[in-house]
Amino acid sequence: xxxxxxxxxxxxxxxxxxxxxxxxxxxxxxxxxxxxxxxxxxxxxxxxxxxxxxxxxxxxxxxxxxxxxxxxxxxxxxxxxxxxxxxxxxxxxxxxxxxxxxxxxxxxxxxxxxxxxxxxxxxxxxxxxxxxxxxxxxxxxxxxxxxxxxxxxxxxxxxxxxxxxxxxxxxxxxxxxxxxxxxxxxxxxxxxxxxxxxxxxxxxxxxxxxxxxxxxxxxxxxxxxxxxxxxxxxxxxxxxxxxxxxxxxxxxxxxxxxxxxxxxxxxxxxxxxxxxxxxxxxxxxxxxxxxxxxxxxxxxxxxxxxxxxx
Length: 310
Fold this sequence. Notes:
By secondary structure, the protein is mainly α. It has helices spanning 9-36, 41-52, 54-66, 82-111, 129-158, 161-188, 193-221, 236-248, 279-283; strands at 119-122, 125-128, 253-259, 262-268, 291-297. It has 2 domains: 6-221, Alpha-lytic protease prodomain-like; 236-297, GMP Synthetase, Chain A, domain 3 (2-Layer Sandwich), CATH 3.30.300. Helix content is 61%, strand content 9%. The strands form 2 sheets. The chain has a 3-stranded mixed β-sheet, with helices on one face. Strands 1-2 form a two-stranded antiparallel ribbon. The longest helix has 30 residues, at 82-111.
């Protein structure tokens, strides 16, 4: 399989544009957050999460460039599975970073670290650094809200887990911004623990997304049954396709696996499948392009009788 199915070409172009916009806007957020970070643990955690939010966009763009390439001698089945590899890479990075940031936040609470947010001189005026941090966090909320809402429907139409993970990251980004604002205000009101508590809360969100995505990505790379975009459950499309194939060839064993955004079906134990229905017939009301390959395996022949030694 090479190239993209025609029904998803437009959505893929739109997804690429959204990811380039993500790199531009989230890079600007990272710069603003770095300049306003100070000594706040919540700001540091939010800054690192904003940097992490660039990873799904980068991996998606790399995977989208490789996926349509033609099969080669070294890769005879093409590159459709590069999307699965990109998904796993994003999940691993999220999990590791979420665990490290959670450790730092919890240790800050255990040690009773009191963050210092003092005044600074800005344009000749003395202002509390917390207001600068809150302004930066407020800015960090706006792009993710817009980008995340735009990506979700596209990721569903493409059945793209990397893009869907990116949309979830955008949601985590704006939630992080709000949690960070709460932490900074808490410190300003004298609650020293608010900063580390906000950092720990943000880290839990990162860690949860990473662990959930690692579970789904691992199943995909182990030739597991196709999974839902939102979690490790077997997708409803796969269940419906399995039922249709089993109904048409009741004597066979039907196996489904996921390869990138496609489902691969194997019907085992059928000597003569007869006239094959179209992908649209087999997929019913689901997108026909999702059925990437259908193969038939004839029943194995019984072993020959051993020669008579007598």
